[in-house]
């Protein structure tokens, strides 16, 4: 019963239905669920901006499993959300003492340190700090009024700039889209006071049907944004050529084109992911892993979409599994799910865990049976 409630909660969490997910996770806890449920419920509270509740669940998770590093990641995220950056840093560092390589801890620590530096610098950056929270894109996506903005490339460029440099908020305050999102993140209305009279009372209803609001003006790109846009157009020509070669199974040609794309725009994670896919098809798993890790590195630098980073980790996991390195593969799948929970990666993780168990159960019998167990594990993973 507890497991069933947990799965229902995971499904609602993936759909962004945090309140429903909390209900299921709470029922699972009441039925005797483990520490992971407190971690999951903490993530739900964080998704809704309820950082005090997120912190309570994170601390409960740590109390029940003090050697499980992800509990410290939840605690760090909650403290970051409360603006307690020094305590967030301490929480992430405590987790890293247990697992120095866990991505959610290393990335969270970097974000918390950056936020603290920006807060100490003062100025307009204090307003812009709302854009540096770890879950800012999830919050924008979860709000029906702001979610459509994520499809606008010019808006996304501004968000990425604000995530990198909150002090740049001063030059974007004239953009109603930015004001709308900032107000949503802060829980206030930073735009107009439509609907209120001068004395603070509700306005009279309009006598006639309102005209459709004018479309938001196109905000001109900065010189830097224009330069990057031009480079991406050039690089995408090589990427498209690489995709065509990949489909035709001309793998060497595909790699050559992806390398050209990277040479033009070296901070675009998609090109690394595409090249890693070719390496995987060539069964050059070491090169595949190396390329994915480089993609994650450059993606972190430019705050790439978490879903794209998740794909990199998932491919790393698959490459490790092909090599029979189940521990490394399992960790990569877990890192992928921390970025973006998808049914496919969850299935891959379960298959890898099952294959590892088959290998462990049979390895002690003999070297020959150990090799057979490894092969059986790989077959289970493919199934």
Automatic annotation (TrEMBL):
TPR repeats lie at residues 2-35, 69-102, 235-268, 310-343. One of its GO terms (cellular component) is cytoplasm. Keywords: Cytoplasm, Repeat, TPR repeat. Residues 194-219 are annotated as: Disordered. Signal peptide: none annotated. Residues 133-172 form the STI1 domain. It comes from Phaeocystis antarctica. It is found in: Cytoplasm. It holds the Pfam family TPR_12. This is STI1 domain-containing protein. GO terms for molecular function: Hsp90 protein binding.
